[in-house]
Amino acid sequence: DGKIYFVKIHAPWEVLITYAEVLNIKVPIKENDIPSMVENPLDCMLAPLRLPEKVMHPEPDYFTAPFSKEKQELYLINDESTFFSPSMRNRIVNYILTRCPYGTEEGKKKFGIKRLLNNGTYSAAYPLHDCQYWKKANDPNCDNERYTLYMEWARFLRFYKEQPLDLIRKYYGEKIGIYFAWLGFYTEMLFLAAVVGLICFLYGLFTMDENMSSKEICDPAIGGEIIMCPLCDRECEYWRLNTTCQSSEYSHLFDNVATLFFAIFMGIWVTLFLEFWKRRQARLKYEWDLVDFEEEQQQLQLRPEYEAKCTQKKKNPVTQEMEPYLPITSQAVRFCISGTTVLFWVSLIIASMIAVIVYRLAVYAAFASLMENTQTLQPISGLLTPQLATSVTASCLNFVIIMILNFLYERIAIWITDMEIPRTHMEYENRLTMKMFLFQFVNYYSSCFYVAFFKGKFVGYPGAYTYMFNRWRNEECDPAGCLIELTTQLTIVMAGKQIWGNIQEAIVPWICNWWGRRKARNNPENLYSRWEQDHDLQTFGALGLFYEYLEMVIQFGFITLFVASFPLAPLLALMNNILEIRVDSWKLTTQYRRPVAAKAHSIGVWQEILNGMAILSVVTNAFIVAFTSDMIPRLVYYYAYSENEDSPMSGYINNSLSVFQISDFPDRNKPKQNPENFVICRLVYRDYRYPPDHERKYLHTMQFWHILAAKLAFIIIMEHVVFIVKFFVAWMIPDVPADVKAKIKREKYLTQKILHEYELEKLKERL
User: Fold this and answer.
1) How does it sit in the membrane (predicted)?
2) Which contacts qualify for 416-420: CB closer than 8 Å, 24 or more apart?
3) What does pLDDT average to over the chain?
4) Distant-in-sequence, close-in-space partners of 27: CB < 8 Å, separation ≥ 6
5) Three-state SS for 661?
6) Separation of CA 714 from chain center
């Protein structure tokens, strides 16, 4: 009849204790008697950041043991209604619902709430929030945990406060708790990287006036007299080097000696972050009773979809029970289709990147011609060079393409992972994670890799330029170097992604909820019940956390893989993450139905991805400093080619720009006009070629080979130094803190002792 009916399920004590044993849930047996750690002398300074003790630790610390129905007197059961936490209760109920049979079809059992949701029998299945988020419940027995979370955690004005992780775990479960623990720890560690990055940026800012390269470029007697070769074929004119004065000054902000220090620092910082996170994770594993938990039974249990779709059965060698399986041939076919699909979409990204490069090449000539020939653009031509104008517009276009491809691929990735029919929930998540990460890695970083390592490296020289598809002349870097363009690309993609992500996460759910509740929100609460209110909220979904991790790991890539080009990247990430924690907590507490609780002992496969990116970041930053920045050519000139002892860097610009005789231009490249009858022009980018009057005309000089050798030597030395320090730091820092090891041993000893004494008592009673 078009009405919605609600079925409210309650789990009585008998059901809870039966399934607590099935799920091996750990419960309290004795209060923790190990004294807490020595007080930190800085605690009084950190007091403003602390939350009230009742919020931070809603329950005392206990030693725990797996629940057994037959040994109930062992456990500290004070009140049956509160003995199992809300997250434990909803996990037990969900476990039952996902395996509950409801009929047969063609001899096959039909079971599980997921199947009933898929076929439309039910429209939703969700645990209830315990009260309104903005006010306490009328029931005096209600814990009002949602209200507490909102007041103490989910409001932006609490951004400087620590997170109530124990309360988050109690209300939402360990899986969501560990995500917020990781995000909070990552944000804390970013503070150090942001401070050092800001200092490096300020160093560049304060030494701008001392930069000899930009001084020479801006000097009318030097840069004003150096005539540069045209930026494009035929249409572009000759121009003077000092027109790039402002961009060369800004380039020094990021291309200075502090860049090298910061690249090495970030290589060590990322190791400290990962190692200290392992220690933090080990502490949480103990505190949240996850020490003996390898993969939750619920995760290792066969997915209902797997059981429904796999008709063939074989004996499980461990359980000796018949269970469904997918034949090898079927698996192989599915993997082939899946692999081909992923490969196709990765190829699509590369094709779209090539399209953006073609756009850059085609528009570059247009910008160059426009800026030279349009008088109204003359006032800003110093700041907005053709290279920079092309880079900014191409970066914006690239960002739009990235977001469109992301939107499409998300749906494809879920479809092909479903098609593979993974056996367990853990397997499903890991497969989807690898597919999505591979795609997003190529999607987000390909343009940065192009600017960092390919742009301006294969240009040729006047008369022998390199062309893409034999039509578009390859791009040249700005005379100040390619690093400023990499910075521009990184800033636009990273900042754009963060802004768009926050809009998607906060504004979209709020608008959807506002629209969905427009009719009901004026009703009194006795007519608009808790389950109806929750029904009108958004669904967090099984992959809700997956997208949160993916967003943060992609950001982690931006601040590690390309950080040598943009020391302010960690500061941007820090500001975003302070907002991200509160946006995620706000939407989870106010805009979404309460998710089904799940256990997790770590951040899972994301840990391996972060480790891989940490190693790759050392290599990429070494290559950026060597090949993208102008540091190595300047050092080689300083120590080997400088002729002025009083000012070793003077003459560097003149030394680094090769000379070309205009009469050697072929018709294809020659500008239509040369009103001032210039005889020679200089190459736009750093290149070291013999002059036209030399017997080895336009071939590379020995200085070119010296610089190349220095670049390769620098990469090898920097990589080895950073890797040695990384591995030494990792070896020095134990993964599990000493006090946690002691507590784990104490708990195991006590559990065995209590169980042994209990068995002895039972034996005496029987005798």
Assistant:
1) Multi-pass membrane protein
2) 416/337, 416/338, 416/341, 416/342, 417/338, 418/305, 419/334, 419/337, 419/338, 420/331, 420/334, 420/335, 420/338
3) 84
4) 20, 64, 65, 66, 67, 75, 76, 83, 84
5) strand
6) 29
Helices (H) and strands (E) in the chain, counts: 27, 12
Q: What pLDDT, in 10s, does the model give residues 570-625? A: 999 999 999 999 999 999 999 999 999 888 888 888 999 999 999 999 999 999 98
Phi and psi at 468, nearest 5°, equal: -90, 130
In angstroms, the CA 315 to CA 329 distance is 19
Q: Measured between alpha carbons, how far is 94 from 661 in angstroms, rounded to an integer?
A: 78
Contacts of residue 70, Cβ cutoff 8 Å, sequence gap at least 6: none
Nearest to 63, CA basis, from 105, 90, 29, 98: 29
Is the CB of residue 615 less than 8 Å from the CB of residue 192? Answer: no
For residues 658-677, average pLDDT: 84
Dump pLDDT digits (tens) for 497-533: 888 888 888 888 888 888 877 766 666 666 778 888 8
Contacts of 65 (CB under 8 A, 6+ apart): 26, 27, 29, 74, 75, 751, 754, 755
**Shortest CA distance to 234 belongs to which of 663, 659, 667, 664?**
667
Assigned token pair, 300: 């290792």
Whole-structure pTM over 0.85, yes or no? yes
How is residue 477 written in tokens? 């870097």
pLDDT at 767 exceeding the cut of 60: yes
